[in-house]
Specification:
Elements lengths: L1 H10 L3 H26 L9 E2 L5 H15 L2 H6 L4 H32 L2 H5 E2 L11 H29 L1 H24 L3 H10 L2 H23 L5
């Protein structure tokens, strides 16, 4: 366990990657969103509730963090005689801690928006209606799981790159793209967009969160199996 915690400390040696850059990205998108909300908050539309998607920016950044956490730190960890299992567990623990921290900030932002009636402009970036429909605890859990999902996706593709190189990674990405396009074509061919949208609309935040946890578990397991055979 101590060696796993040492991996956490190693990952946080450069705090910019896991802490400061996500905060800067979030702060920047918040400032830009508030400026846009302010410009839109005119007398003609001051009764309109506005929603912004700027809060997703640091979540997308976690995709890059997942890639960097492996490609930049894995070779160094092997030189320090850290086992692959310890590196894997320590890296995912680091991601989980920072995901929870980001989720706490999102929840605090949502509570501020609730208390100030959307920054005094009826404008919301954190307190999105559907996500908060089951309360702040579920909303925080949802944000943490989504951040963790982005990290694990980046980590997974990085393990594929370290194990098999650019060629297989490119083939995998193209294959996933073809599967996605094929799935969309089948849904359209069956004229099933209505039922699909109805099904998505029936999902609750906690149900979607649970499904994403299963995806994280599956990707994490595959990533570990790939990492065990990756070249440092």
């Amino acid at each position: 366990m101590n060696r796993t915690l040492n991996v956490v400390r190693m990952q946080l040696v450069n705090r910019a990657t896991f802490i400061w850059v996500p905060l800067i990205v979030l702060g920047g998108t918040l400032a830009i969103s508030l400026l846009i909300f302010g410009m839109l908050s005119t007398s003609a539309i001051d009764t309109t509730t506005m929603f912004g998607g700027g809060a997703q920016a640091p979540l997308w950044y976690f995709l890059a963090v997942g890639v960097q956490a492996l490609t930049l730190s894995f070779p160094f960890s092997q030189a320090m005689s850290v086992t692959r299992r310890e590196f894997y567990l320590g890296t995912l623990l680091t991601a989980a801690l920072t995901s929870v921290g980001l989720a706490v900030i999102f929840v605090i932002g949502g509570l501020i928006e609730q208390a100030t009636r959307g920054w005094g402009m009826n404008a919301y970036m954190f307190r999105l209606t559907w996500i908060w429909s089951q309360g702040p605890l579920v909303a925080g859990l949802f944000f943490a799981v989504v951040a963790m999902l982005f990290f694990v996706v980046g980590f997974f593709f990085a393990t594929v790159y370290k194990r098999w190189g650019n060629l297989i990674l490119t083939v995998l990405l193209i294959g996933l793209g073809l599967i996605l396009v094929g799935g969309l074509w089948i849904v359209g061919r069956m004229d099933a967009w209505g039922p699909v949208f109805t099904w998505f609309g029936s999902l609750t935040p906690i149900a979607l969160t649970g499904a994403l946890v299963l995806v994280i578990a599956a990707l994490s397991a595959v990533s570990y199996g790939t990492l065990r055979r990756a070249i440092a």
